[in-house]
Amino acid sequence: MSDASRKGYQSEGGLERAVIDLVRVGTRGHGAGVRQVASRLMRAVPPGVEDVESFRDAMHSAISAGVDGTGLRYVAGAVPTEDDSAKPLVDIDLLPDGDGLMLADDTMSQLREVVRERERADDLRRAGVGLTRTLLLSGPPGVGKTMTARWLAQSLALPLLSLDLSSVVSSYLGTSGRNIKSVLDYAKTGPCVLLLDEFDAIAKRRDDDSDIGELKRIVNVILVELDRWPDTSLLIAATNHPQLLDAAVGRRFDRALALPLPGRVERAAILANLAATAQAVDQEILELVTELTADQSSSDLTRFWSLANRRSVLNDSNLSDELISELARQVQDTGAGRDRLFLAMRDILKVSNRQIASLTGVSHPTVANGIKRAEGANDGGRSEH
Fold first, then answer.
1. Which SS3 state, helix, strand or coil, does residue 69 take?
2. Signal peptide span per the entry (predicted)?
3. Residues contacting residue 369 through CB under 8 Å, at least 6 positions apart
């Protein structure tokens, strides 16, 4: 799937893509997938729809009128379930959405390589070169590991199966290994992307003497499956703590990618993507947020934006003002962080000290003193270089 085709239903050709998606999930008899496409169409109405509100009302009525049900599975056979509750062990997303993924260029280049491998699978096989079958993603919480799995599944036009290992690892002897094996066997019955989330849940508890036998069996199952995983599917493991993984497990992956916190360029891209579907926000505001969120993950930025956007609706206020207010709340009450906020507001937004004081709820002298300290810190940093 090309980059252009991943821009969503609001871009050119969006209506055609929506129809194709509806046919794809509809012919599989998957009612939940049809409702998923319909929900996306309500959020991002394609160009060419003259009466947007009427379209959304009609889509909502159509969804409400449908019979709730899981429909047919994407492959023959039942989805594996827990023995005692019949609850599905794995989540299935027939239309994964990874449009919001923003990672460093080098990381995105490697992900695109994985996609190109599938596009030229025959050439690689003729050359005796295997495809990437397994991928290990690591990094702090919220940096985009799950979104990366969605992006790959979307790019490969494959369903995404997600298994949270932290929830499936059970204290009952024999249950955990059996549950994981049943999910792995199910995932191999048809092409898919399988995400094993919280992968370190296996390694974290290996020192627990009361459960070491069960965990050894689980690790053995994983080792065998990593070696035998078919190249028609892609197995992705995600962990926040790669250092806790068994060394033998880590070596089995075809690729390993560490996802750091987003840099300035990535933060700017994430915010620009969020701003594209919101009320107009001044570029200077986006630069201010970019400048002062160096320690935040992509998930943090999305949550920050959603909170400000929600308040702008509830308060009938300007989104730019709510973004500044939320920045002021998140920056430390006192100290270098708040001083940098004052300085950035003056230099980027070109507002006076009194305006800064009004926006952040502090006194005018407090702003003036904070700016002096921030300027002094900047001068000191430059002199060291």
1. coil
2. none
3. none
Work out the end-to-end distance of the chain between its first and last CA atoms, rounded to an integer number of angstroms. Answer: 46
Farthest CA pair distance, the chain? 73
pLDDT at 63: 64
DSSP state of 22: H
Rounded mean pLDDT of 49-72? Answer: 64
Number of domains in the chain: 3
Stated pTM of the model? 0.72
CB distance 192 to 93 below 8 Å: no
- DSSP code for 208: -
Q: Which of 167-171, 245-249, 325-329 has the lowest mean pLDDT?
A: 167-171
State whether 48 and 170 are in the same domain. no
Instruction: List the one residue out of 238, 156, 228, 159 whose CA is nearest residue 196.
Output: 238
Report the alpha-carbon angle 195-200-205, nearest 5. 135
The model's pLDDT over 82-101, given as tens digits with 9 standing for 90+, comes to 766 677 888 899 889 998 89
Domain stops at, among 65, 81, 116 = 65
Query: 69 near 53, Cβ under 8 Å?
Result: no
Domain end position, chosen among 230, 258, 286: 258
201 and 98 both lie in a single domain: yes
Same domain, 125 and 244: yes
Is the domain of 123 the same as that of 205? yes
